Amino acid sequence: MPRFEPRDPRDPRGPRNPGAAGAEWTRLLRSLLPQPAKRNWARRFLSELHFRGWVTRAAIPILAMVVFGVAVVVIMGANSGNAGPAAPTTALGFPPATLAGEDFTAAESGRGINQTLGQVASDGTEIVAVGSQSGATIGRAQFFVSQNDGRSWSMGSVRTPDGGEPPPGHAARFVAGRQGAWVAVGPGSIWTSPDGRTWTLAPSAAMPLRPGDQISVLRRTASGFIAVGTNIPGGDQAKSSPVVFLSTNGISWQRLDASQLRLPAGTGRVLNIRYAATEGPLILIAGDVTTTTTKVVGIGKAKAIRTVTSQTSGAWLSRDGGSTWVAAVSPDVPPPGHGAQPQIAGAAAVKGGFVLLRPTTGARPGLDVYGSPNGTAWTFEATLATPAGLVAGPADGGPSGAVVIGQAGRTLTAFVSANGVSWRQTQAFGAAAAESVSGVAMAGGGAVVTATTAGPQSRQPAITMVAAGTPARQVDVAKIPGAFDPQLAVNDIAAEAGTQVAVGSANGYPAAWMSADGGSSWTAATGATQAVFDRPGVQQLTGVTYGPAGWLAVGGVTAAASQHPVVLSSADGGSWQAADGEAAFGGPGLATEQAAAGPDGYVIVGYQEVKAAGTAPTSSNRTIAAAWWSAGLTGWERAGDATAGALEGSAGSGASMQMLAVVARSGGFVAVGSDGNQATAWISPDGRTWRQASLPVPIGSTSAVLQHVASSGRTVVAVGTAVTTAGQSLPFAASSSDGGATWTEAALPVPAGQDLRTSVTALAAAGGGFTAAGTFGSTPGHQDVVVWTSANGSAWTAATPTGQGLTGPGIQAITGLAASGSTLTGVGFTAWPAGEEPFFWQAPVR
Nearest Cα to 400, choosing from 358, 348, 469? Predict the structure, then answer.
């Protein structure tokens, strides 16, 4: 099982001491008696930080702050209701949390924390590959460094400008460097290094990205660095345009005016920049363009002029560090020679010049290589082909030569050349279906390929050394000191009398734990068969509930497998069996989010991805709300509409609907989520049919979603996130005194006197009132726990508890809350620069 060693006394969070936390908790109880305790480079990167499910409800606001630096504010007095004061922490008496990495145990496994690799760069002998390590929530940058042509590897160190530890987040995706200057770039972060081994997080630095910007390549130039890509405003491919950024130091970047990349009059427009190569003072970039031509069709009076638009490629050359550009290859002036297609599939530098790759014509794909000593005069050099065909992947080059990765049928292969003229194929080194190649670099001893593997071993980094005439050599990343950690996340908790069940994931598998003594000790749950928890890809549990027939837990796939509900049931919370094999869960694109149980049975809510109305190729998918009902823990049925369009939406609307949380109440069930840009609720008397009760968008906001819901008597309370007209996110609450038919919004106050980013992460009904948890902080990488309490759901009081797991360096979050008697129990995580650990928290109900 994963082991969590005793904490280093130098750790800023202090030593591990569950006993001290327990003693403080006991003192607190005595003092309070008789009242004890849902795709471009940014989108792709974000998709690597998986964990759907509770991420949809809790982690996305946190990730938005950590990865993109989105400011989070609160609308004071939204619509109606009283936000209430921020009470002194000492008046609330909340105890610290107990770090629980050794309590929520998992079976031994070769799988660990989810990791992905980005690009790789080399200056000859030294090689640097960058990536991210994603734990329960937060991505952290990783730097894999070799100083001897890939024979041995170590992890680079990270720091802030003052020598301290950087906050969590700030993962890296692109890297470039040589001659004593290295830069790595990720969403919202820039890292610099003088030697490729010690990396410093630049303070408040990022490229001047605009909405829709996607970076594709980062390269070192003679005078600094260049990053290129495309801008897709609003996801509309028809409006895409190229983006080019220049920097002399890797920290301050200048956005190049796209109009400098000109095409001959009448030939069309530039869509993107996909490739870049540098040789001495020369910079070559290439991308896709549209060409527009006219032709006469028909004869006589039926003659007509038809305009034809097609997609080809172009390339541009700069001799002055990127300030000015001239056409190197344009649609009407292709390189002469071999009859290749008019697209460019790659670009690389070689000593004394460049090479361009073009797909060949003919039934079997291949690549034609064109060379140039100056970036403008091109000649055909060679054709790269295999019996199974060859589809181009990443390419790179430099003084040591050039390399191009290709897919040959079902395998990955590479072609290398010392001069761009004579090429040799390497041996196959991977399965195309199992590896997603992210980068390649030409090193002194051959080429190094970075990829992320998908399959039985979750998503893990892969580094391969390839050279012509020798077998490929795989680097065992797990053996690099500091590169591998176990994965453990506890996402939700439910309680019934003295029994508690927590659910989440361990090493990429769904996981559950049971406590029969109120949380003092925990035992890992088992499956009736091995397949109950041992599932393909990366999967997790996100919600758990208790009902008359026992326990129900739900979740889903986060990566490396087709999307499918995870639905498990248990009579006692210790032994589980799978129910998601039933026909009701067999449709395509289904996702299960949360569950609830009441006298009328069990309900699961989620959504289903469906094709949007219309037949145009550009029609995007949308989601419809989905719910399932069962009288017990088997025999599941798909729920339907009580009123037309309650779950699917109005015909032809194209708006997405999602059920994200559900609660049982006297008289049925209430679910919450979103309908297009509006927060919405659904009501059902029995869980089988549903009608919709929409909420107005909070004042000053353009969109809103409800992510958690709880019920006490006839009062139902939900909390979620709204987005203002300025694009800022804020937490808010909505309450209903008539069982979910009508709703009133209220603000969730931030701690007084601070300019903070705030999000809401959990909600529970407790002691006749309601308790919500969230995070707050003045910087993206430092978030502490905030707790809101309310007697009726309309007037809220905020408190900021202190202590282990709730405040301190890094990020703390409570992701699940449950009440049992006079005790409120929470689970969550604390993330510091080097890792994460789940925690367990108990407090008296207030």
Answer: 348
Residue 835 vs residue 491, higher pLDDT: 491
d(CA 660, CA 607): 8
DSSP 599: T
Q: Which residues of 575-604 are buried (b: 16+ CB within 10 A; e: fewer)?
A: ebbbbbebebbeeebbbbbbbbbbebbbbb
CA 713 to chain centre: 38
Cβ atoms of 332 and 264 closer than 8 Å: yes
Both structure tokens of 207: 């490229």
Q: From the CB of residue 179, how many other CB atoms can be counted at a distance below 10 Å?
A: 8
Note the pTM of the prediction, 2 decimals: 0.72
Neighbour count for residue 469 (Cβ, 10 Å):
10
Q: Among residues 448, 442, 475, which one has the least CA distance to residue 152?
A: 475
Rounded Cα distance, 786 and 751, in Å: 8
- CA–CA distance, 138 with 99 (Å, rounded to integer): 17
Tell me the β-bridge partners of 382: 369
Residue 428 has pLDDT above 50, yes or no: yes
At 265 the three-state DSSP class reads coil
Q: How far apart are CA 346 and CA 275, in angstroms?
A: 6
Is residue 57 helix, strand or coil?
helix
Query: 526-527 and 797-799 as β-strands: parallel, antiparallel, unpaired?
Result: unpaired
Enter the DSSP assignment of 6: P
> Among 226-235, 452-461, 614-623, where is mean pLDDT lowest?
614-623
**Contacts of 443 by beta carbon, 8 Å cutoff, 6+ apart:** 122, 124, 125, 127, 149, 150, 400
Of 278, 370, 282, 381, nearest to 333 by C-alpha is 370
Query: To the nearest whole percent, how much of the chain has pLDDT over 70?
Result: 82
Summarised one tens digit per residue, pLDDT across range 276-310 is 999 999 999 999 998 777 777 677 777 777 777 78
- Residue 237's pLDDT is what? 79
How far is 436 from 407, CA to CA, in rounded Å?
11
Residue 41's φ and ψ, nearest 5 degrees, are -85, -40
pLDDT digit string, tens, across residues 742-778: 999 998 987 765 556 788 999 999 989 999 999 988 7
Rounded Cα gap, residues 412 and 425, in angstroms: 11
Over the stretch 364-412, which tens digit does the pLDDT of each residue have?
999 999 999 999 899 999 999 999 999 999 999 998 899 999 999 999 9
- Report the chain's mean pLDDT, rounded to a whole number: 82
Burial group, residue 299, by CB count within 10 angstroms (0-12, 13-18, 19+): exposed
Give CA–CA dist 558/504, Å, rounded.
12
Q: For residue 338, what pLDDT is reported?
A: 77
Backbone torsions φ then ψ of 427, nearest 5 degrees: -70, 155
pLDDT score, position 170: 83
pLDDT at 91: 37
Rounded CA separation 358/340 (Å) = 6
Assigned token pair, 321: 């560090």
SS3 label, residue 530: helix
Could you tell me which residues come within 8 angstroms of residue 322 by beta carbon, excluding any fewer than 6 positions away? Answer: 221, 226, 244, 246, 256, 283
794, 81 contact by CB (below 8 A): yes
